[in-house]
Design goal:
The chain is an alpha+beta fold. The chain contains five helices and four strands. The chain has a four-stranded antiparallel sheet with strand order 2-3-1-4. Strand 2 and strand 3 form a beta hairpin.
Amino acid sequence: MKIDTTNWEILECLQQNARLSNAEIGRKVGLSSPAVAERIKKMEDYGILKGYQADVSYTKTGYQLKAMITLRAFMGRLKPFLIKVADFKEVMNCYRITGNENIIMEVILRDQIHLQEFIDRLITYGEVKTHIILSNLIENNPITKNKELNGAEI
């Protein structure tokens, strides 16, 4: 599928506010509502648009801490961790990474006691390093057109 300039404009609109109507997007990009709907459907079908989620404040829902936690798995403990991590409700995002650590997780926690309990569950799988997040400098930055692609087929 070719992501042309108009598709990029539609993607920009949706990343800023996924609740915009097709008519509102059409006014911004110079298309009719049905044309916008058709382009959005194609991008959904192709997997460019993966979904639409609500952005929920962790602090307003009772969590006080956000942290990045890395895990360097013990020998033979990575596969059990990969199975178990889906059960950890504290984990918002989890990535398998290169380098000395195997895993990096973004987690939310009620307080320091919750953090301690969570680390106690993790240390059976490996060495843990915790980094408390003080503030977000950039969050959910929109994906923009890669100038080098110049509308090339993806």
